[in-house]
Amino acid sequence: MKKPILFLFLAPMTVAAQMPPNMDQAAMQQMMQQMQGMRNCLQNIDQNELQALQQRGRAMQADVKHLCSQGMRDQAQATAMKYALEMANDPAVQAMKKCGEQMKQFLPNMPQDTFPTSEELHNRHICDQM
To answer: CA-CA distance, 126 to 130, in Å (whole number)?
Structure first.
């Protein structure tokens, strides 16, 4: 019984301690609502699809590492570019990106794209990144 009461006493202080100095209480409340909206949005994405994406990502990474280790840099680069384009067009990835955009105003430094663009892959070689 003491732990829940202690939590209720300390929770407001914890939240206040984590508030950025330029954020007032109303902005903090709005951010919390946006975070809940993002959480709800992410829960609507099929978890099986996300697991399949994760497995495909691991397999692609292993393939690219193998190609790089064999000196097949052009093939590794082509494989990575193909995968990046597939991910950019994947409905689950697009849904995750849409969910993340809800938080952009509160977290402007949050990376928006987790997959390299084809332009980024053209400007640097995948084998040099692994």
So the answer is: 7
